[in-house]
């Protein structure tokens, strides 16, 4: 004989040998006991051996059946396990979210465990990049973008309006705008500069403060590095209270005074038609709830 016996016959044998009952095997496989008996006789004919000792109302494995059962049982157990893993993976849904490195590090990562608690069936993957993700290339399912909008050919949902305020380490002892004249001003470099770009020149104009030289001081390309430098008492920076909420709560940073500068909104954007529409809706609702706390 070349190859394997028919799979239905092997399946019937495995179930009958495991239960030592043609009736219980039939119930498991949703067939009749006669069908089980037929498949086993077919297998015995193919193999040329007797697999069961048949007695009234009772069956037992023959020596050949005892030899055959363990590997057949192991093979079907392995198949059931593999099918179970695939089914479980199918129930778990994956979602890739793209956001800037600062938003990912300062807002998303600290809250990732909370999202997993609310949505244990969604595997959220974070794609941190300051480059605009290409949805068509499969780089992400959904993204957080900052700006005025609109976003052509994308569905968008505003999450929150950004604003910026002077922040510093409490060790600097900054208490009033006049203290800025004796402090190092830290700057963030923005790719696009317009009327809502936060800058010390704009803040001083809004505050009616004259005197600080807003053209000097370290410039940071990465907001995460700017936040680190501010925590390390290297100067005063215009930061987002939302992105540094953890540092404010822990007392590593303080917001000694205003005014706050308004910025644009953060939006959750994605292609209009998406296979992950349910997951995106769940993410959007979770983010809005988290931002309102």
The domain count comes to: 3
Report helical residue fraction.
40-55%
**CATH fold name of the largest domain:** D-Maltodextrin-Binding Protein, domain 2
Sheet with the most strands, sense and barrel status: 8 strands, mixed
Structure summary, number of beta strands: 10
Per DSSP, what share of the residues sits in E-state strands of 2 or more residues? Answer: 15-25%
Strands ordered across the widest β-sheet: 4-3-5-10-6-9-7-8
What's the helix count? 9
CATH superfamily of the largest domain: Periplasmic binding protein-like II
Dominant shape:
rod-shaped
**Mean pLDDT across all amino acids:** 88
For the termini, the CA-CA separation is 71 Å
CATH class of the largest domain: Alpha Beta
| CATH second-level architecture of the largest domain | 3-Layer(aba) Sandwich
User: What's the quaternary structure here?
Assistant: single chain
Order of secondary-structure elements: HHHEEHEHEEEEHEHEHEH
Structural class, by secondary structure, is: alpha/beta
Radius of gyration (Å) = 33 Å
Low-confidence stretches: none
Keywords: DNA-binding, Transcription, Transcription regulation
Family: Belongs to the LysR transcriptional regulatory family.
GO molecular function: DNA-binding transcription factor activity; sequence-specific DNA binding
Protein name: Glycine cleavage system transcriptional activator
